[in-house]
Write a structure and sequence with these properties.
heterodimer, A: 608 residues, mainly alpha, two-stranded antiparallel sheet, 4 strands, B: 385 residues, alpha/beta, Rossmann fold, seven-stranded mixed sheet, five-stranded parallel sheet, 12 helices, 44% helix, disordered N terminus
Chain lengths: 608, 385
């Protein structure tokens, strides 16, 4: 059906249009600060709600609405830059990334608390005329969105190329210190960039909200995810590239739906990303002249002096936690600690691949899912003893995780994060669609409880000890590994991969080894969780868990084994402690996270 | 501020410690204290809107229960713990509730992963988990302490299929469903029933909850030449699909599951949801006194706001909980047994609700065939659209 293909193409371009608005803002910020701004989706959310206030409460006409939204969003962007990011400009490169995650928590929660989480209608202020194109129609909003996307990309291109401030922006992007030396006011440049990007983000939230006649507080993460994909496909930091990347993303999704059906849509989006990254690691439209997108040597994860904890203190702490169930603590406290130990295992895994060897993964929940499904299916389908099934889960996670990630071994810095993010999403979507094995959205229920040598571990006390011991063993193994020759090689690769290669280290082999160890620990954690929960489906281990894991690891100090565990206890414990604050707890959590990043950017215990 | 917080916090954890130290299965008989129910549900995170709707329904029901003299003279109250629909948090909440001797019954959680992860804990501790929105067919198989008033999709979907096929005379259907455990289960029941009634299924398309753009999906739908679209959706995605279907020029009859029944569906869908048919469990003009009391009370309490399906589920669940606790008292095991004894509890969704002891669910949901006319839900008059 030829006409249908025309419709799929038009629909793809229409959606790509929508993605482009977010992607352009992300590209601009990345171009200058080499930062993936995870708060961009939140600014988009803020813009949508400010637009709602303007349209529904104040009844402003559309041009005025756009100006109000742009101004207010720009103000939010300036505040973020001034108070969230500028204090971090001389700290480790990873700190601002974490700060943007914290800021997005805070903004999303503020919007939710102010406007309630119920979705709202945001009526379009344009006349409802439809133009027939192919078998479908397009409306004035489609044209307006396309116009805003293209015009802003073009304006930005001209601004960056021909205006004085634009030169300053580009100079800052290339070499911050040199720009400063030449008299560029770097802070003003950053302010300008954040202001423009935020205004764009806010307006895009407004227009997309009108487009769907619907805004709700869950739209922020999705916008960030799709925007990041589109931006990276186009070449991170490249503004016209971001527009083309977005259109391409929209087309691939639309054709994916056409050929395989709706439930495969996002699978194609993320596959596109992985393929582009593998074939053209700098994105489709990175020019050859462009320097390497990331620092050549290890400034992405700057070494800091780790806090040395004396051996006796660790022993005392371990002993106290080991005998915790003998104190009059409630099962609730024990269950919370079990969660912390399970997250601790995941964090050990991530701190090894992200901290020690420098592959900052944003899709680590996929390893949990692989471990959990393997263990659940082994015990249910093959009646394997639970202990054996969990180890099987660990091994499968190690093998499959390493195999999946291996195409992205040639990537560096942020690109690794984006590729792993995509791989994580792909794993989750495969679980959703591979019904004959995973039972799709129905999930797997009736997973047998934890047991060891024929004894069921069902009381919180026994599960507590079990998970604590497993975590301690994994931690000791990892500490032993890091102290060995292998650990030194890992760090050498992280700090300077060219020097490491010159020394004869095979990068791929060492990266594989790190993922095998890391995958095993994560898979074990997922396996235990599956038997603890008794029911899992594709939503059990989601993107938020990946982001949480990364937060834990950065908070604890990258590569730091004890730090990973401390971070896990803190990030499981804090939201529980803040329960007294009810709806406000995630807001408080976000603020605490921001303060921690502000005052301990190298992590609580420092990078190893 | 921080001082106060810390103090309450210390007090809270001390109290929790003492409570667990003094934990015993026989609940304290302090008659001045309210009888406490635990609620585990999303107040933040992507499903926060549903937790908010639960609260509205609960509070309305509690007002009436209190006005009627409470439970044998004692007040009924609930403690709502935010789980974000995250299984990690719902299991911790489960431990919190089971070790709090004041809690006699638990309600929730919202999503299946969060609810069913907590089930083993409730089952082992012997505290009823009353999952009133848990339609997953395996939920009540978690044990004899898992009970649900969620309308079984095995009941609901054949009703919808009958509406679409027998009443509206649709012969070739395109089914769009949320690709979650609920949507998938519903789709299967719907497809079976529709085929049984003689309709053909042209295409089924599952979409993820975060999806907002359905244009390409609708091209697939168009190419399969259906004479009707079936939406197994919630109100927000249902409204999006209806809008985009009309925008791309699909003029087929749209028939949607009861979960779109919300004033928000009308607000978000605008003109596009005009003439959409909805099979629901109750409707505003329903003369049954429990429905009239619910709708009038809701509008009065929430400034004229129309209640929706999730409000009704929560309202019914709280009334059911009250009826059960009236019989079972504060002993957890007796509360479980009371679920088997409780009979003909007036409810919005089921009329007189009685549990089927074998499945631990309520059968026989009410049925109303509505259509959107002039921006309002109205009883379908039998005229084709």
């Amino acid at each position: 059906m030829m006409s249908s293909w025309l419709d799929y193409t038009i629909n793809g371009l229409i959606v790509g249009n929508v993605y482009a608005l977010v992607a352009v803002g992300l590209a601009l910020i990345f171009g200058v600060s080499r930062l993936i701004n995870f708060a961009q989706g939140s600014i988009y959310l803020v813009g949508a709600y400010i637009g709602w206030v303007a349209v529904v409460q104040l009844h402003t006409p559309l041009p005025l609405t756009i100006i109000i939204v742009a101004a207010a969003s720009a103000l939010v962007g300036l505040i973020i830059e001034r108070f969230g990011l500028r204090p971090l400009q001389n700290s480790v490169r990873i700190a601002p990334l974490l700060a943007t995650i914290g800021i997005s928590f805070v903004l999303d929660q503020l919007v939710m608390l102010t406007f309630s989480p119920n979705p709202r209608a945001l009526p379009s202020q344009l006349p409802d005329v439809r133009f027939q194109v192919g078998g479908g129609t397009i409306g004035p909003l489609d044209l307006l969105i396309a116009g805003v996307g293209l015009t802003s990309a073009l304006l930005l291109f001209v601004f960056l190329r021909y205006s004085k401030l634009g030169w300053a922006v580009r100079a800052t992007a290339q070499d911050r210190d040199a720009a400063m030396q030449m008299g560029v006011d770097v802070n003003r440049v950053n302010q300008a960039v954040f202001g423009i990007a935020a205004a764009l983000g806010g307006v895009s939230g407004l227009l997309v909200g009108m487009y769907y006649n619907q805004i709700d507080t869950a739209m922020s993460l999705q916008a960030t995810l799709k925007g990041v994909v589109a931006e990276v496909v186009g070449g991170a930091g490249n503004v016209p590239g971001a527009v083309i990347g977005s259109l391409l993303l929209g087309l691939v999704e639309s054709y994916g739906v056409a050929v395989f059906g709706t439930s495969y849509r996002n699978l194609f989006a993320f596959l596109l990303l992985v393929v582009v990254l593998v074939l053209r690691p700098n994105g489709l439209f990175a020019s050859a002249r462009q320097g390497p997108p990331e620092p050549l040597t290890g400034t992405f994860i700057a070494p800091s002096r780790p806090v040395r904890i004396p051996r006796w203190a660790l022993l005392v702490a371990a002993a106290i936690f080991a005998i915790l169930p003998f104190f009059p603590v409630s099962f609730y406290v024990l269950q919370t600690m079990i969660n912390a130990w399970l997250l601790g295992m995941l964090a050990l895994s991530l701190t090894l691949v992200a901290g020690t060897i420098g592959q900052v993964s944003l899709g680590h929940a996929a390893l949990l899912a692989i471990g959990a499904y393997t263990s659940a299916l082994l015990s249910l389908t093959f009646s394997a003893p639970v202990g054996v099934a969990i180890i099987g889960g660990g091994l499968m996670s190690a093998a499959l995780g390493t195999a999946l990630i291996s195409p992205s071994f040639r990537l560096r810095g942020h690109y690794v994060s984006i590729a792993t993010l995509a791989i994580g999403e792909i794993v989750s979507l495969v679980i959703l669609n591979w019904e004959s094995v995973t039972r799709g959205p129905i999930g797997i229920s009736g997973i047998p409880p934890l047991s060891l040598f024929g004894y069921e571990l069902v009381s919180p006390t026994s599960i507590y000890w079990f998970s604590f011991i497993v975590m301690v063993v994994l931690a000791l193994l990892q500490a032993r590994l890091l102290g060995s020759h292998l650990g030194r090689s890992f760090r050498a690769i992280r700090d300077d991969d060219i020097a490491a290669r010159a020394y004869g280290l095979s990068l791929n082999r060492y990266k594989s080894l790190a993922f095998i160890f890391g995958g095993f620990a994560a898979g074990i954690s997922g396996g235990i969780a599956a038997h603890l929960y008794s029911y899992i489906n594709h939503e059990t281990f989601n993107t938020q868990q990946s982001i949480l894991a990364l937060t834990v690891v950065i908070l604890g100090g990258l590569g730091n084994v004890v730090g990973a565990i401390v971070g896990a206890v803190a990030l499981v414990g804090l939201p529980e402690v803040f329960r007294v604050a009810a709806e406000y707890r995630i807001l408080i959590y976000g603020i605490v996270l921001l303060l921690l990043v502000r005052f301990r950017p190298q992590g609580l215990l420092g990078t190893m | 501020m921080s001082n106060i917080d810390r103090r309450t916090l210390v007090k809270g954890s001390l109290a929790a410690m003492m409570a667990s130290a003094a934990f015993s299965r026989s609940a304290f008989a302090q008659s001045s204290e309210p009888i406490l129910l635990g609620v585990s549900g999303p107040l933040t995170g992507p499903n926060a809107q549903y937790g908010t709707q639960w609260k509205q329904g609960f509070d309305l029901a509690l007002d009436a229960i209190l006005a009627d003299g409470g439970i044998n003279g004692r007040k009924l109250a609930y403690s709502f713990e935010d789980s974000q629909s995250d299984p990690r948090q719902s299991v911790a909440i489960a431990q919190k509730f089971v070790s709090d001797p004041r809690i006699v019954l638990e309600l929730g959680d919202f999503s299946s992963p969060a609810s069913m992860a907590a089930s083993p804990i409730y089952q082992r501790a012997g505290l009823v988990q009353f999952g009133f929105t848990n339609s997953h067919p395996d939920f009540t198989k978690g044990g004899d302490f898992m009970w649900s008033t969620s309308v079984s999709q095995a009941d609901e979907q054949p009703l919808l299929a009958a509406y679409a096929v027998k009443k509206l005379g649709l012969k070739k259907l395109a089914v769009l469903h949320l690709n979650t455990d609920w949507g998938r289960t519903s789709r299967d029941y719907f497809v079976n029933a529709a085929k049984e009634y003689g309709a053909e299924i042209a295409v089924t398309e599952g979409y993820i909850a975060e999806e907002r753009d359905f244009r390409s999906t609708l091209v697939r739908v168009r190419d399969s030449n259906p004479d009707g679209l079936i939406l197994i959706s919630y109100y927000s995605d249902g409204a999006l699909i209806a809008r985009q279907a009309r925008q791309v020029g699909l003029k087929q009859v749209i028939c949607a599951a009861s979960s779109v029944y919300s004033p928000k569906f009308l607000e978000l869908g605008g003109e596009a949801v005009e003439d959409v048919h909805v099979g629901t469990r109750y409707f505003p003009e329903d003369p049954r006194p429990e429905v009239q009391k619910f709708i009038a009370g809701f509008k009065k309490k929430y400034n004229g706001l129309e209640p929706d399906a999730f409000n009704a589920y929560a309202y019914d669940a709280m009334n059911m909980a009250a009826a059960v606790v009236k019989i079972g008292g504060t002993d957890r095991r007796a509360v479980r047994d009371a679920f088997m004894k409780v009979k003909d509890v007036p409810s919005v969704i089921f009329g007189a609700a009685t549990f089927d002891v074998a499945s631990r669910r309520v059968k026989g949901a009410m049925n109303a065939e509505l259509v959107v006319r002039k921006g309002q839900f109205a009883l379908w008059d039998g005229k084709p659209t």
